[in-house]
């Protein structure tokens, strides 16, 4: 395992921090009502430092699995349920001890301190040092206040936190950028390559939280023959390669690929890494961000283990409210620019992400808390500004027209006792005959291309009534509006999609229940006028304003509106049948769910940052619907063209009344009626829909 090079000065600072923190639990220097917080947090840091020492001398890797599990539980136990009610990571608990304002600040500090866990495993001394120094600076403030018999003002704590984030922003961004681009920063890849993956102790060497999901997934993969592991990896790596091929991009220009996955799949990842290397691509695997500077709300981007507590992540999604201002945005944008300029040679040969998602975990519906930080309207605009500007910086160095990606998904054991069956069904879905789907989807495209718009209506309780406007085809023999999507970048196979014309795209989108970015939305309804969202609601909370705020924050990302960036028809009825058979529709990722009915994405188009790159269907026709009235603004002001989000919302077949292509003369071509494909040439898609459910098969037998 590679050790980080550390200057003598940093190591000296680190040792001084250790010595000071180790004495805090025995001290009574701060006011009694605050003492428990500092004693508890210092005790946690001491535990992490002990792990750091064991990793450094190699003894941690030699521990039996039972002791590794105890360490893992101790490191993460404080934020697990039911301990979370008494954890300072919980803003409610911190508010009870410190009051509302101070509570938010010390809860943020506690959350930043918890980042020490992963830095201890990676032996990142600088990162550990700056976090420990931050904790000691806040402790000193409370210590001084107690000596002077005064109170600690929230503004004083906030100032310390602000300058910590501001002063170290450039270093943190640069380190994160290198982690994302440099294959020599190979912490995770070293574990995957060097450990015997049949020895499940390896899972505890990453520093992530490990549950039965990760252990049982690894055990299950170990039960499969190597040929099947290689085949699973091949589906994934070939999807990535074909993405370049279909996009007419030169993969030989690229030297690295970013692998993102969740622990437990190391055997497949090891096989995939070898296959990528055979293509000339070195794998880069970086961890989901630990420093607040590099986090993006509650989302985890990179590799990670089990999420210890999704409510904890959700409670801290708005922590940037404590420090986000114009100066910080400017500083972070400068840091991003400088970081990519320094790493421009690595960025130029980076091919993009290859992602393995998982599904099957218990669905999460968050609790709204008044104690959590919330971005002000001004801060929301600043966040949007940062997202736009940083996206432009990244695209200058990792050019959109030259990169690609792929995504595949597999279940985890939490999905239920039929995990093995569902896993094998998922493998089947991921390897469906793409030639069959290509042919059927081409039939659908030829019907849709005769229309000037598409009408989508729900049935029964579904209130969807939408008209989607299509681009004009000046040469139908050579042009098309819809991409024939088979198993390349988005695995599994099964959709045709387009970027609608916004003007004339009107109506209501409704779905009874849907998961978007791992959050549940009940009775979600969005209204569009000329392709832009004009109103929205859901039924998650009793108060209508809370429902609107929930959507505005997590779907619109604090914007007043978003355009409809995509309209698609999912054709993977086999996946739909699997969902019905095993009753797992609410647990499927959007990657699969979007193939199980029509879906509508709000935000950027599917072609963002690459609209000027010609894209062709297998029949040779060019897909001309790559822009809309928002994305085309890039020609005038690129900051107005891109939104940095793309959220798919799917209507399941059972809620779908009809999809019709409407010709210029008003006549209609019916594609789907009452949840079934009725267009001639698409009948095979109904076969999985007609198959009996598993319990029906058992009754017949």
Overall spatial form:
globular
Mean pLDDT across all amino acids: 94
Strand count, sense and barrel status of the largest sheet are: 8 strands, antiparallel
Helicity range of the residues?
Answer: 40-55%
Radius of gyration: 26 Å
How many domains? The number is: 3
Give the structural class.
alpha+beta
Oligomer: single chain
State the distance separating the first and last CA atoms: 56 Å
Q: Report the count of strand segments.
A: 19
User: In terms of per-residue confidence, which ranges show pLDDT below 50 for 5 or more consecutive residues?
Assistant: 695-701
Percent of residues in beta strands? Answer: 15-25%
Structure, explained:
The protein has 3 domains: 8-152, no CATH class; 187-406, no CATH class; 433-700, no CATH class. Helices cover 42% and strands 16% of the residues. It has an 8-stranded antiparallel sheet. Strands 8-9-13-14-16 form a 5-stranded antiparallel sheet, covered by helices on one side. It contains 23 helices and 19 strands. The N and C termini lie far apart (56 Å). The protein has 701 residues and is of the alpha+beta class. Residues 695-701 have low confidence and may be disordered. The chain is globular, with a radius of gyration of 26 Å. The longest helix is centred in the N-terminal third of the chain and has 28 residues, at 154-181. A hairpin with a 6-residue loop joins strand 5 (453-458) and strand 6 (465-469).
């Amino acid at each position: 395992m590679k050790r980080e090079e550390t200057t003598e000065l940093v190591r000296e600072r680190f040792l001084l921090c250790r010595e000071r923190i180790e004495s805090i639990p025995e001290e009574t220097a701060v006011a009694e009502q605050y003492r428990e917080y500092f004693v508890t947090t210092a005790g946690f840091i001491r535990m992490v430092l002990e792990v750091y020492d064991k990793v450094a001398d190699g003894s941690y890797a030699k521990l039996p699995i039972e002791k590794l599990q105890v360490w893992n539980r101790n490191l993460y136990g404080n934020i697990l349920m039911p301990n979370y009610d008494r954890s300072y990571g919980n803003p409610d608990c911190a508010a009870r001890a410190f009051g509302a304002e101070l509570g938010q600040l010390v809860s943020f500090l506690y959350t930043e301190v918890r980042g020490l866990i992963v830095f201890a495993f990676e032996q990142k001394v600088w990162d550990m040092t700056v976090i420990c120094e931050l904790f000691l600076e806040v402790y000193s403030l409370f210590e001084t206040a107690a000596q002077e018999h005064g109170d600690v003002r929230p503004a004083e704590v906030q100032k310390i936190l602000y300058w910590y984030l501001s002063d170290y922003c450039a270093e943190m961004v640069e380190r994160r950028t290198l982690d994302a681009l440099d294959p020599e920063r190979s912490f995770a890849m070293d574990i995957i390559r060097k450990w015997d993956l049949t020895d499940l102790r390896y899972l505890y060497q990453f520093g992530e939280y490990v549950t039965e999901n990760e252990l049982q997934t690894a055990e299950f993969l170990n039960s499969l023959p190597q040929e099947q592991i290689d085949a699973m990896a091949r589906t994934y790596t070939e999807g990535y390669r074909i993405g370049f091929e279909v996009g007419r991009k030169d993969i030989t220009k690229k030297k690295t690929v970013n692998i993102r996955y969740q622990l437990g799949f190391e055997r497949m990842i090891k096989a995939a890494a070898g296959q990528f290397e055979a293509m000339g691509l070195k794998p880069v695997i970086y961890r989901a961000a630990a420093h607040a500077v590099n986090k993006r709300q509650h989302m985890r981007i990179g590799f990670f283990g089990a999420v210890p507590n999704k409510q904890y992540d959700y409670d801290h999604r708005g922590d940037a409210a404590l420090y986000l201002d114009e100066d910080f945005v400017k500083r972070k944008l400068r840091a991003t620019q400088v970081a990519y300029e320094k790493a421009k040679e690595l960025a130029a040969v980076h091919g993009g992400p290859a992602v393995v998602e998982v599904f099957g975990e218990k669905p999460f519906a968050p609790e709204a808390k008044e104690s959590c930080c919330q971005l002000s309207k001004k801060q929301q605009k600043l966040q949007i500004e940062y997202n736009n500007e940083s996206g432009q910086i990244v695209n200058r160095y990792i050019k959109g027209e030259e990169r690609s990606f792929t995504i595949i998904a597999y279940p985890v054991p939490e999905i239920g006792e039929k995990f093995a069956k569902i896993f094998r069904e998922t493998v089947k879905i991921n390897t469906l005959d793409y030639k069959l789907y290509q042919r059927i989807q081409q039939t659908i495209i030829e019907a849709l291309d005769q229309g000037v718009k598409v009408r989508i209506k729900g049935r029964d309780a579904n209130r969807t009534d939408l008209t989607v406007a299509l681009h004009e085809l000046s040469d139908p023999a050579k042009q098309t509006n819809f991409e024939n999507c088979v198993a390349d970048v988005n695995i599994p196979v099964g959709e045709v999609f387009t970027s609608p014309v916004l003007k004339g795209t009107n109506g209501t989108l409704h779905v009874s229940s849907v998961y978007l970015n791992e959050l549940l939305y009940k009775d979600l309804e969005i209204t569009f006028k000329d392709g832009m969202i004009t109103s929205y609601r859901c039924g998650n909370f009793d108060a209508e304003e809370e429902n609107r705020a929930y959507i505005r924050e997590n779907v619109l990302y604090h914007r007043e509106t978003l355009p409809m960036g995509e309209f698609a028809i999912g054709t993977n009825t086999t996946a739909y049948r699997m969902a019905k058979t095993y009753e797992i529709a609410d647990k499927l990722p959007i990657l699969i769910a979007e193939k199980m009915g029509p879906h509508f994405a709000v935000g950027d188009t599917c072609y963002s940052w690459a609209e000027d790159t010609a894209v062709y269907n297998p029949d040779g026709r060019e897909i001309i619907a790559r822009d809309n009235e928002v994305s085309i603004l890039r020609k005038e002001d690129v900051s107005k063209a891109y939104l940095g989000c793309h959220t798919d919302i799917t209507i399941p077949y059972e809620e779908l009344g009809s999809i019709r292509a409407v010709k210029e003369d008003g006549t209609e071509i019916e594609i789907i009626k009452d949840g079934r494909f009725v267009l001639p040439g698409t009948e095979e898609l109904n076969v999985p829909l007609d198959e009996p459910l598993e319990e029906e098969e058992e009754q017949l037998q």
